[in-house]
Amino acid sequence: xxxxxxxxxxxxxxxxxxxxxxxxxxxxxxxxxxxxxxxxxxxxxxxxxxxxxxxxxxxxxxxxxxxxxxxxxxxxxxxxxxxxxxxxxxxxxxxxxxxxxxxxxxxxxxxxxxxxxxxxxxxxxxxxxxxxxxxxxxxxxxxxxxxxxxxxxxxxxxxxxxxxxxxxxxxxxxxxxxxxxxxxxxxxxxxxxxxxxxxxxxxxxxxxxxxxxxxxxxxxxxxxxxxxxxxxxxxxxxxxxxxxxxxxxxxxxxxxxxxxxxxxxxxxxxxxxxxxxxxxxxxxxxxxxxxxxxxxxxxxxxxxxxxxxxxxxxxxxx
Length: 318
Ligand code: UDP
Fold this sequence. Notes:
InterPro entries: Epimerase_deHydtase, NAD(P)-bd_dom_sf, UXS-like. This protein is of the alpha/beta class. Helices cover 36% and strands 20% of the residues.
């Protein structure tokens, strides 16, 4: 039986991963650490399971006398406006968080980390294989996120190399779906909340920049498979994402159509906004041959819109 700790477990992706962890019968205890900076208690409020324990704390100063068989490190903001506002705290959550959590790992335990496709920066090759070194500006406005993810990868892979640490690192591409904060600020949730509130949809730049939009269930399914596979000869970081690349403008137009024609306005691009992003899934297909993204962005955006509509109605009724 396994004792498991997840940092950032009240966050958007973390809370979905908690639900999957609780489906495992070999999990004896699940400790969720979250400071509720970008996470929301509402994301885990539905859990009724005696194995589940919530601790409100910054991950880097977490007090614990216990050690764990598996640790999942997800604590970090992931939305550009949030991490750009508090870069020092972002670096601390990722890097110092990893240092603290490594202290809490049992000998022979497994350390799982959600890195990011942002390690590729504004990529010059497409699609991006894990071997692509990326194009990141280490003094730019996105660097607190990109570089702290990269440095945490470095820490973990160097411990794998020098001490044989059991490491699993995923690099998720743009992920959206239920439990995103309404004020998260990323494209899909922003477009939906704007349209539902009767405000114009804000497209930054000309909207021709593209992303590969992955629905949360598909992405977390990929994480779970890679994190939980007992034996694999693949040791590197793994891209997890939907490899259908679609422009920001197309997503905005689709959301607009779904709500009956919300207006679209164009605003200046955020600094160093990547022009494109698409995962090369060769390694993912090798490591998890039964995994693929099953939800098209048309279905996923419609389901996310439904979820926001319901949660906004429920919120208004409270
Ligand atoms: N974006 C946009 N309008 C918004 C929010 C985001 O046009 O209200 C654009 C943003 O400039 C970027 C893309 O959508 O080109 C994806 O942004 P997001 O913040 O979702 O994720 P990123 O890939 O930048 O981390």
